[in-house]
Known about the structure:
By secondary structure, this protein is mainly α. 39% of the residues lie in helices and 5% in strands. The chain has helices spanning 36-39, 43-54, 70-75, 92-98, 110-132, 138-163, 184-201, 222-236, 242-254, 305-308, 335-340, 346-351, 355-358, 402-415, 420-433, 444-454, 461-467, 471-474, 496-501, and strands at 279-283, 312-316, 352-354, 359-362, 370-372, 397-401. A two-stranded antiparallel ribbon has the order 1-6. Helix 5 runs antiparallel to helix 6. It is globular and about 60 Å long.
Amino acid sequence: MKKIKIYAGLMLAASVAFTGCSDDFLEVTPPTSNPIEEYFTTSEHVYEALISAYDPLHWPDWGMNQYNPINIMSDIMADDIWPGGSSPTDNQYWHLMMNFDANPENCMTGLWTCEYSGVKRCNDVLTYIGWAGDNISEEDRNSWTAQTLVLRAYYYCNLWKFWGNIPYFTENLEFPYLAEQLKADDVYNNVITDLEKAIDMKVLPLKWTDTATEDNVGKVSQAMAYMLFADMVMYQNDESRYTKALGYMQEIINNSDLYDLMHSYADIFEESGEWGIESIFEINYKDDNAVRSWNSPLVAGGTCLPRLISPSAWAPNAGDDSGVTNGWGFAPVRTSTYEMFAEGDQRRDATCFDANAHGTYEHRYQDTGYFLDKYIAKSENNKDQAADGDLNFNNNLRVYRVAETYLNAAELLIRTGGDQATAERYLNKVHSRAGLTDRVAATIDNIIQERRLEFVGEGKRYWDLVRTGKAASTLGPDEYRTNTWSEQKKYLPIPQAEIDAAQGTLTQNDY
């Protein structure tokens, strides 16, 4: 039975972004009659706040009245999946994003609010640690501070990637709740410096190994911080930090007793593969007595991602043993994605569920017959939920895994003039795990292509195309896309409601 203690669904602090909101929204009633300044002065209560800071990791798939699963929201802007659904007006902002046509009135607002809620809660934790003083042991103070800094960097990383020029604050805001908007490069500099601080504290374990108690399943680790660091440094093309990022990747690789590739690619995405030897960071979801519901979508429980991306009106063939159940037909995998895999590449069938080979279904908009097998809805994965089945699948979202560590290291070796043979060994370790026997030369183009094959549907492809300068030549008109990506489209428009609430202090992105 999958029990996840780290995400307890505690709602101890109101989530507030940088813009205006009513005073009532900010009047937090603590769990006791004590003022908040008194309540958060004990180790137990500060730890509750830390748990609360993890909560917004869960929300984007369905929160703030939008479906924003973070892996899908980036991949629809690339070239591996379509938005799908019933029509171009079904989750219309997905289709606008795919066509590089997002506008401030019809755009991804939910993720903006989710990530700023995370930032706000992290700021709370750091404040409460100060209030508690000596009531927290030095060991806990250091660990909780480092965890919070890494979490806040993760939330800011998502905001920075999607919107670039964003409000940035590390202490929570007072009326009228306005923060300075920084340029994307300045956001990067602040966040990466904060992340380096957490890494340099050296208080987080490379991997939480005492998971038998389940208390630490889902916490950020030193290895997760390393991966986030490399993610940001490589996206920024920050050559000054490439060597440091490479060292972090090799530290993970050299600790093969803690981290290594799983033998079977398909097994990574099974429940049995969660937090396995290949896993560096996942966002936890559970179905065991999960009570997430449409009326209460922000409590702990499962995810609706599998329902979103599975075939609609599904009817399996007689004798079909796939276990797939009904979905809503979003994010179909492109036919060209299925066809890019070489014969014998085990990743193809573990990535692309061939619906026509297993049953019948409603062919919705942009249908190809292929759906993302990695997170496909299976009846086994929400059978123990206790509320709304659509929202309570137990599929953990894989954020960072060891395959990316190897491919990051291979790329960083090439970019820093490192050992070519080692880079090739790293690249081919991932390539060979897929069941392929040919050798691949360690070039930037080959590494980027291997990343594409490895991470379909995992939210990596779009950012790879942008950071390598390949987006404009790759993301142009095709079967459904009429526009071509350009540097002007690098950042999404800031939601108009945020512009309006900011009282003239926010400048809209070009779009």
